[in-house]
Write a structure and sequence with these properties.
The protein is an alpha/beta fold. The chain has two domains: 1-80, no CATH class; 81-255, Metallo-beta-lactamase, Chain A. It has helices at residues 2-12, 26-29, 32-39, 47-53, 61-66, 134-144, 178-201, 206-212, 219-223, 225-234, 241-246, and strands at 19-20, 43-45, 78-79, 83-86, 89-95, 104-108, 113-117, 151-154, 159-161, 173-175. It has a seven-stranded mixed β-sheet, with no helix packed on it.
């Protein structure tokens, strides 16, 4: 990835004046120091993100193997305020906890562009990190609905827009009103919340509640089943449908059941 990005920067020679991280997840911050050294642009992070990056906590070995263990954030760096100045104006910095507690998005009120990071990851996303809080995420999406958005850029590369000045790029650009995409995501999260709350109210086992969130009558349940289970296995449960259920019942004081349980019962 670094070689590819370095080739692109040498070819296009863009004027990069700032490097900004939306949150502290490893795939978003592993190249901060490298990109700052390459371009000479200072790194900007929120105060909460800086605490996660100095020092960067040791990742579970499976995540460190698959994605990589980021280095500590190098000094000097700058803390984000309410805005980020640009050559053409400014970007608003908007806290959007949910995907992670430290998450922020950047919004251009003139061009009506939302750099969403991972605050929006498609309308369907079923294998979150263990630190996702879907209740907070839903509140953050409701805040984003207050913005006038014509272009929504996801942190993992997808773009949602109806603007004709954005060229078609199969697999990247989706011709969809960004707000419609956000509404679809909110509706999905609200439906999940109802399913999970009902399951816990009925004192159902975690696996039964999880199954109720992925009925075979819903296309996404079976379309993504193989992919979701492969992600669960490869990450040893760090990214899983089970974590999606847990994300609606996060608590600092009440521990949840472990992802994997071994139960030995004697014969009756």
């Amino acid at each position: 990835m670094r070689r590819s990005l370095a080739r692109h920067l040498r070819r296009e020679k863009p004027q990069i004046t700032k490097v900004v991280a939306t949150h502290a997840h490893e795939e978003h911050v592993g190249n901060l120091n490298w990109l700052s050294d390459l371009t000479g642009a200072p790194v900007h992070v929120s105060e909460m993100t800086s605490r996660f990056l100095m020092p960067f906590k040791k990742l579970p070995w499976v995540r460190a193997t698959i994605i990589g263990q980021p280095p500590n954030l190098a000094q000097p760096f700058r803390l984000l305020g309410e805005t980020v100045d640009t050559d053409s104006g400014y970007l608003r910095v908007i806290p959007t906890p949910g995907h992670s507690d430290d998450h922020v998005v950047l919004y251009d009120p003139v061009e009506k562009v939302l750099l969403a990071g991972d605050a929006f990851m498609g309308s369907y996303f079923a294998t979150p990190n263990p630190d996702v809080d879907s209740r907070k995420w839903l509140v953050s999406l409701e805040r984003l609905m207050e913005l006038d958005i014509e272009i929504l850029v996801e942190g993992h590369g997808h773009i949602h827009t109806l603007r004709a000045d954005i060229p078609d790029f199969p697999g990247v650009v989706t011709r969809q009103d960004p707000k419609v995409a956000i509404i679809e995501k909110m509706e999905y999260l609200r439906w999940l919340r109802e399913q999970i709350e009902a399951g816990f109210q009925d004192q159902l086992p975690m696996r039964v509640i999880e199954a109720s969130c992925f009925p075979w009558g819903r296309r996404t349940s079976w379309e993504s089943c193989a992919t979701d289970e492969c992600i669960r296995l490869l990450s040893l449960g760090h990214f899983s449908r089970t974590e999606l259920v847990r994300s609606f019942v996060r608590s600092d004081s009440v521990p949840l059941p472990t992802v994997y349980e071994i139960r030995i019962s004697g014969g009756e």
